[in-house]
């Protein structure tokens, strides 16, 4: 088991299964004596709902993701060549592809019983756009291992800690000035963060409830088994007491019988000698 194996597994799971599986893999690593691997696994962040939706898209539509990222290569080449006409054509194509893939991501999320909200779909679109501009983000999107979504302004993604080769790496940031977010965007971001916190809390609550129910069932089963064992012990103890009484009676009977046998044998031997003496007198007469 390597960190790359665990990353690939965890970020392909439903978010509700992430924490429990991460804990299990970290425990396996510790049991194998690999503390560094266990520490690295524990440090893996649970993906946001929007990041999970992008990962889902990458794993279920890899050809579409590859086509999108090829478009990103073409855009970067056009920028290097300062080709305005080509950039305009590619920019129109980019928006069409991002919109289509965002819609596909929403369909996949619904198929997996996690319908995407408008906010989640916006974040998915932002992340796909960022992947077109930044090769590091593109690699994460292609692998389907995003822990969080990415925003793009200028040439650099913001707010991402990437997972590559088992190590955490911060993507390059743009030195271009950022536009100040509007009050509406700030409120939307706060709502998204609150929603994510609620989702994480509810997921953790569900996992804790499941663990509690499993532990409760195990405790009830153990109590039933203990009661059965104690009942069996009581029954065996009663049988043992009865058997000991029978042994006592049998030992008394055996002792009495042995005494009677000894007495009878002595009587037999006396009678035998008497008979021999009588036969001897008969023969003399």
TrEMBL record:
<feature type="compositionally biased region" description="Basic and acidic residues">
    <location>
        <begin position="248"/>
        <end position="259"/>
    </location>
</feature>
<feature type="region of interest" description="Disordered">
    <location>
        <begin position="248"/>
        <end position="268"/>
    </location>
</feature>
<feature type="region of interest" description="Disordered">
    <location>
        <begin position="171"/>
        <end position="198"/>
    </location>
</feature>
<feature type="compositionally biased region" description="Low complexity">
    <location>
        <begin position="171"/>
        <end position="185"/>
    </location>
</feature>
<protein>
    <recommendedName>
        <fullName>Transposase</fullName>
    </recommendedName>
</protein>
């Amino acid at each position: 088991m390597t960190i790359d194996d665990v990353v690939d597994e965890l970020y392909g799971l439903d978010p509700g299964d992430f924490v429990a599986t991460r804990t299990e893999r970290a425990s396996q690593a510790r049991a194998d004596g690999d503390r560094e691997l266990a520490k690295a696994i524990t440090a893996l962040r649970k993906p946001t709902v929007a990041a999970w939706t992008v990962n889902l898209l990458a794993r279920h539509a890899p050809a579409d993701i590859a086509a999108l990222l090829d478009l990103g290569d073409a855009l970067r080449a056009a920028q290097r060549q300062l080709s305005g006409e080509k950039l305009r054509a590619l920019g129109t194509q980019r928006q069409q592809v991002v919109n289509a893939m965002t819609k596909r991501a929403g369909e996949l999320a619904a198929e997996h019983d996690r319908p995407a909200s408008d906010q989640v779909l916006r974040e998915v679109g932002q992340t796909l756009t960022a992947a077109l501009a930044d090769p590091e983000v593109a690699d994460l999107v292609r692998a389907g291992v995003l822990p969080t979504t990415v925003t793009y302004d200028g040439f650099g993604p913001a707010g991402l800690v990437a997972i590559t080769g088992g190590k955490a790496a911060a993507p390059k940031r743009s030195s271009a000035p950022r536009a100040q977010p509007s009050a509406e965007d700030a409120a939307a971001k706060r709502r998204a963060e609150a929603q994510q916190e609620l989702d994480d809390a509810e997921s953790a609550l569900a996992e804790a409830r499941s663990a509690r129910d499993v532990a409760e069932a195990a405790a009830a089963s153990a109590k039933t088994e203990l009661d059965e064992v104690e009942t069996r012990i009581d029954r065996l103890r009663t049988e043992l007491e009865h058997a000991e009484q029978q042994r006592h009676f049998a030992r008394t009977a055996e002792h009495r019988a042995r005494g009677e046998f000894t007495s009878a044998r002595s009587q037999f031997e006396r009678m035998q000698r008497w008979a021999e003496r009588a036969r001897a007198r008969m023969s003399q007469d």
